[in-house]
Write a structure and sequence with these properties.
The complex is a heterodimer of chains A (368) and B (92).
Chain A: H1 10-13, H2 16-33, E1 35-36, E2 43-45, E3 52-54, H3 57-85, E4 89-94, E5 99-102, H4 104-110, H5 114-117, H6 136-146, E6 148-156, E7 162-173, E8 179-188, H7 190-204, H8 214-231, E9 234-243, H9 245-252, H10 254-271, E10 277-282, E11 285-293, H11 296-311, E12 314-316, E13 319-321, E14 324-332, H12 339-355, E15 361-363
Parallel strand pairs in A: 14-15
Antiparallel strand pairs in A: 2-3, 4-5, 4-8, 6-7, 7-8, 9-11, 9-14, 10-11, 12-13
Helix pairs in contact in A: 2-3, 9-10, 10-11
Chain B: E1 8-14, H1 19-36, E2 40-46, H2 51-57, E3 61-62, E4 64-69, E5 73-76, H3 82-88
Parallel strand pairs in B: 1-2
Antiparallel strand pairs in B: 1-4, 4-5
């Protein structure tokens, strides 16, 4: 911009340059420590000599301009620092989605240096792994309609690792309303997500065998009941208990007992069908849900296979041991339709299976 | 009932009768009368006559207002932005 000092009084012409410097300096000083109200001034004072320079209208305008420029530069400096030191990754694209700048944090998060990114599109970060409910089309529609979008997406690091980010995309508009840039801010929430997953697992799964726990079985039970009702099939509810597990625990120690439970859980799971559920209720108590059964015989075949599989020898460290199981079973709808009732009936049938000599199954309706 | 206003003391640095300086004097007096009643005093220092005082105060432009009591405020310009002036001078 052309400095407006040409209208300076003759006496000042020789000192144009120092005056300009003086004005620049004081404009900055004002921005820091003093406020210009109305911003109209008449004279500047040289702080070295105390000499007062009267300003023409044009020079006064120059002072104002300098002050505004200084204020603007300060705002820009502040914005640049926010960009540079933000703890969130920031990516800026033009209206066509071409990357114009990224901050250091973004480079750190993605593994790409800014030189590798500027001029490209952000497509390379997109993971094949989609967060639940995420749609690129909807994201862009929201950005266009509401001016922003935020949500969670999976990104891909340069090294191939995927990570979950909380993303906000905002449209930057010119005064006439057209979009000039898009700004995307990213924060890595993978740790948070993993922690949530862990908590969820803890709430629903047995940490030793990774089988569903009592709480998750409750959900599965309701689903299986609905399914069986709709398909008019049988649902078998089985209580499985190892014969003599306490003795193993007492003689070989809890560690061996735990190893055994893990292996038993594995075998049970292996011999069930895809839609079936086995849950661990604690100790050596397992609960089975076998759904979609056309006949009781289908169930008993599975139970026989299961008993055989459980009875195969187990390798615990150096030791080979044998154990078998007893199972009590109740059927929906034949024996009832309430989960608690069916579990109680299965438990009673289990008791009878033990009474009858163990290593067997017993069906509740055969009790009478 | 409003409290008795605190006594306000101002020093206004001007450059002779230059237009912005005159406007600053006028605006300052008007604001004081309206908000402070009689509880104020204004000393006007002409930078052209007393450069030493301007230098001592560290004033770099005129008109320039320095408030001395009951608190300190430093403002440059002709005070024609009334809302800003009232806020910065804590008159209301």
């Amino acid at each position: 911009m052309k400095p407006l000092l040409t209208l300076a009084p003759k006496a000042l012409l020789r000192t144009n340059e120092p005056l300009r410097e003086l004005i620049t300096k004081l404009a900055r000083a004002h921005d820091e420590v003093e406020r210009l109200v109305g911003s109209s001034v008449d004279a500047v004072v040289d702080p070295e000599t105390g000499r007062t320079f009267m300003l023409s209208g044009a020079q006064e305008a120059y002072v104002r301009l300098q002050r505004e420029t200084a204020a603007q530069a300060e705002r820009l400096r502040l914005a640049a620092n926010v960009f540079k030191y933000a703890h969130e990754g920031i990516l800026i694209t033009d209206a066509h989605g071409i990357i114009v700048d990224v901050n250091d944090m973004f480079s750190e998060m993605t593994g790409y240096a800014s030189e590798e990114l500027i001029g490209k599109t952000p497509r390379r970060f997109r993971s094949l792994h989609r967060a639940q409910g995420f749609s690129v089309t909807r994201m862009w529609r929201d950005v266009n309609d509401q001016g922003y979008w935020h949500g969670e997406i999976w990104n891909r690091h340069k090294d191939g690792k995927e990570y979950l980010v909380r993303l906000t995309v905002s449209a930057v508009r010119t005064p006439d309303g057209s979009i000039s840039h898009f700004v995307a801010t990213f924060s890595d929430v993978t740790l948070l997500y993993e922690q949530q997953q862990r908590l969820e697992r803890l709430a629903h799964y047995d940490p030793l065998t990774h089988l569903p726990n009592r709480a998750l079985l409750g959900d599965r039970f309701q689903q299986a009941l609905v399914q069986s009702r709709r398909a008019e099939t049988l649902l078998a509810v089985g209580y499985l208990d190892l014969d003599g597990f306490k003795a193993i625990n007492d003689n070989l120690g809890h560690n061996a007992g735990d190893q055994l439970l893990v292996q038993v859980a594995h075998r049970i799971r292996l011999h069930l069908r895809g839609g079936d559920t086995v849950a661990r209720f604690g100790g050596d108590e397992f609960v089975l849900l076998l759904s979609g059964l056309d006949a009781i015989q289908t169930c008993t075949q599975i139970l026989e296979r299961l008993l055989q599989a459980v009875a195969e020898p187990y390798q615990l460290d150096e030791r080979k041991i044998c154990v078998h199981a007893s199972i009590g079973v109740a059927f929906f709808p034949r024996d009832g339709s309430d989960p608690d009732l069916l579990l109680r009936e299965a438990d009673q049938a289990l008791y009878l299976a033990k009474q009858l000599g163990r290593n067997r199954y017993h069906l509740y309706h055969q009790l009478a | 009932m409003m409290d008795e206003p605190l006594y306000h003391r101002y020093r206004l640095y001007v450059a002779g009768d230059a237009p912005n300086s005159l406007r600053a004097r006028h605006n300052l007096e008007r604001l004081c009368r309206r908000y402070l009643g009689d509880a104020y005093a204004i000393e006007v220092v002409d930078a052209l006559n007393e450069p030493q005082r301007v230098l001592e105060e560290g004033v770099l432009v005129t008109p320039f207002l320095v408030q001395l009591e009951p608190w300190t405020v430093r403002l440059a310009g002709d005070l024609s932005d009334e809302a800003a002036a009232i806020a910065l001078m804590r008159l209301a």
